[in-house]
Design goal:
alpha/beta; five-stranded antiparallel sheet; 27% helix; 3 domains; 624 residues; TIM Barrel; Immunoglobulin-like; 20% strand; eight-stranded parallel barrel
């Protein structure tokens, strides 16, 4: 393993690579260790300008008389001119010229913003292109007040690195420092973040450090060392974080992590599929990313959240305990069990889950359900003991971009289960002590699907379409030839258009919006639900489809009762967790059957804790 240190960038630069305006001109620096000659080709100059070779494989040079807005390419050994791997903007897409950007030209107004801390966060995941009809930063910023009013505290933006074509989920990013032209200019992104901070909202960015997209990736032309054949991923070549020549690769990605925090004032990163980030070195790249994010924040609070198919608690344990020092990790187990409970379907990766009340209780109390064994015979180990891990470190959800789209029609939860079950599971999500995540439109029961979409040139588009259909065959119902023939084409503009939210449904689906707003208000206002303390929740199975969670708090305990089945009498029930505080009784605080939420009303017996109506959730508190 070779981690020989790269040379330091010249004084005055913000990043070790890329084009940066300095007094009198622009300084260029690029890593191309196997090249003999690198020239910068500014659009405004008739001739290429040679860059000086530095130790460590870097080339750099200062070009006077140009500044922000100038367009340029790099020419390698006299051959084809290519965009900058660290370009801050690609106005014509990933194959076009790069543009010099001066981040200092934007005047921030968030000087008093303290950043974010994990406890108390409610995350809202959105895709900028599909969040509004316009699909721009400017349009998305106009909707931020509605999210603040809902009770969201943290926006998680799906990846925005430059991609080919007219639309893309973002996970095919190739210009990792360049916010895609599809949503506006870099300063439009800055305005979005600035506006969010003014409303008290933090902003996370989803970043992809496990592979690059298949079209427009020029990194290998600059350095073959960026990639390795020693590991594999499901999406292309693995990145080289621990092999020969990896020092420049690590520097590139660490710089990228810090760049988003520094130049865009972001409050942290969500790291995509970290199980596909391979690093056997003593200082794992994930630990380095966490350090770089915090250092770049200069005292502001930040979060680094991982998605990890292997469900490793080491990700969120401190470095001094052998962990990677990240802040939180997505909990797929909660979603998968809740999805089975809601629908009864156990296809594909849902086979390992039964959706029982005990599974849901265990997911609430302990985070991961699988804590060592694989979910099926022959699978690699998943999970690890979670004892002592604070519940806020587990991000829980009923919907996200992947889980909606990993289906035949991209339907949302309320479209594949009954209204009562959906309301009851929403209460479980939003009152449980994990860190809840909502996917855009979930709060108003959006009718728009969320499908996989990616615009590529015809030959690649055909491969993507075939690959997507093949991936979905793990679900037996989608493997049906008739269903395969009916799948939406990811490259069809109509597929993307169908996924755009109809924001008018906030008013037309007011009951669903009220449900989410009231539950988030209850979460904020009630100390028992707000606490997120380890060991402060216990649970009991009440029946085949029903459970109780008791939240212990000095101000008085709370009961959350969830029933996904038929009516259940509680008048004389042999379960200590249902016992009211000594000398008191339970009274109703909240019901999912409130007509304001589209419910059918709450009987008196339920108000007194003697009945748990079918397909409902109740919150009980001590009464006089």
């Amino acid at each position: 393993m070779s981690h020989a240190a790269g040379t330091e960038a010249p004084a005055g630069r913000r990043l070790p690579v890329g084009a940066e305006p300095l007094p009198g001109g622009v300084h260029f620096r690029v890593w191309a260790p196997r090249r003999e000659r690198v020239e910068v080709v500014p659009a405004e100059r008739p001739r290429p300008i040679p860059l000086a070779r530095e130790p460590g494989g870097y080339f750099s040079g200062f070009v006077p008389g140009i500044g922000a807005g100038a367009r340029y390419r790099y020419r390698l050994d006299g051959g084809e001119a290519l965009p900058d791997p660290a370009s801050r903007f690609q106005p014509e897409g990933p194959h076009g010229p790069s543009e010099v950007v001066d981040p200092a030209q934007y005047r921030w107004s968030d000087g008093g913003w303290p950043g974010v801390r994990l406890e108390g966060q409610v995350i809202y995941e959105l895709h900028v292109g599909a969040f509004t009809p316009e699909g721009t930063w400017e349009a998305a910023a106009r909707e931020l007040p509605a999210l603040a009013d809902l009770g969201v505290t943290l926006i998680e933006v799906m990846p925005v690195a430059e991609v080919p074509g007219r639309f893309n989920w973002g996970y095919d990013g190739v210009g990792l420092f360049a916010p895609t032209r599809l949503y506006g200019r870099p300063d439009d992104f800055r305005r979005f973040v600035d506006r969010a901070h003014a409303l008290g909202l933090g902003v996370l960015l989803d970043v992809v450090y496990n592979h690059l997209g298949p079209d427009g990736n020029h990194l290998k032309r600059f350095a073959e060392e960026y990639f390795t054949g020693r590991y594999g991923t499901d999406w292309g070549e693995a990145l080289n974080f621990d092999g020969e020549g990896s020092a420049g690769v690590r520097e590139f990605f660490l710089a990228n992590a810090g760049y988003w925090i520094d130049e865009f004032h972001l409050d942290g990163l969500r790291l995509d599929a970290v199980h596909a980030i391979h690093d056997a070195s003593p200082d794992h790249i994930l630990a380095g990313i966490a350090r770089r994010v915090r250092r770049s924040a200069r005292g502001r609070g930040t979060l680094v959240i991982a998605e990890d198919e292997l469900l490793r608690t080491a990700l969120i344990r401190p470095v001094e305990e052998g962990g990677f020092g990240l802040d939180a990790v997505w909990n797929d187990d909660f979603h998968h069990s809740a999805r089975v409970a809601a629908t009864g379907r156990r296809e594909g990766y849902y086979r390992a889950y039964r959706g029982t009340p005990q599974e849901l209780i265990s997911a609430v109390k302990w985070g991961f359900l699988f804590q060592g064994p694989g979910r099926a015979e022959g699978e690699p180990p998943r999970g690890a003991p979670t004892f002592g891990v604070p519940p806020a470190r587990f991000v829980t959800f009923l919907q996200n971009h992947d889980q909606i789209a990993h289906s035949a029609r991209g339907l949302r939860l309320h479209q594949i289960t009954s209204p009562g079950r959906c309301r009851a599971l929403t209460a479980l999500l939003l009152l449980a002590p994990g860190t809840p995540l909502l996917f855009m439109g979930q709060e108003f029961a959006a009718s728009s699907p969320f499908l996989f979409f990616a615009d590529h040139e015809p030959a690649l588009a055909g491969l993507v379409r075939e690959g997507r259909a093949r991936f979905l065959t793990q679900f037996a119902s989608v493997a049906d030839p008739a269903m395969q023939a009916a799948l939406d084409d990811p490259g069809d503009p109509a597929t993307f258009a169908r996924c755009k939210l109809d924001l008018g449904e906030r008013e037309r689906h007011a009951a669903a919006l009220r449900l989410h707003r009231d539950l988030l208000a209850l979460r904020r206002a009630d100390p028992a639900f707000r606490a997120q303390r380890s060991g402060a929740v216990d649970g009991a199975v009440l029946g085949d489809r029903a459970l109780a969670l008791r939240f212990f708090d000095d101000v008085g305990d709370r009961l959350l009762l969830v029933n996904l089945g038929s009516d259940l009498g509680l008048a004389s029930f042999p379960e200590p967790l249902l016992a009211p505080p000594e000398g008191g009784r339970w009274r109703l605080r909240w019901s999912s059957e409130d007509p304001a939420y589209g419910g059918g009303g709450t009987p008196d017996a339920a108000r007194e804790g003697r009945l748990l109506p079918g397909e409902s959730a109740l919150v009980l508190e001590p009464g006089g």
